[in-house]
Amino acid sequence: MHIDMDAFYASVEQRDDPALRGRPVVVAWRGARSVVCAASYEARKFGVHSAMPAVRAERLCPQAIFVPPDFSRYKAVSRQIRAIFARHTDLIEPLSLDEAYLDVTVTKTGLPSATATAEAIRAAIREETQLTASAGVAPNKFLAKIASDWRKPDGLFVVRPAQVEAFLTPLPVGRLPGVGKVMEARLAELGIATVGDLRALGMIELERRFGRWGHRLHELSRGFDEHPVQPDRPSLQISSEDTLEQDVPLEQLQPHVVRLAGKTWAAYQRESDRVARTIVLKLKTSDFRTLTRSLTPRVLPASASELAELAWGLHLRVDLPAGTRYRLVGVGLAGLVDRDNHVAQSELFDMAVAPS
Question: Residue 246 in 3-state DSSP?
Answer without folding.
Answer: strand
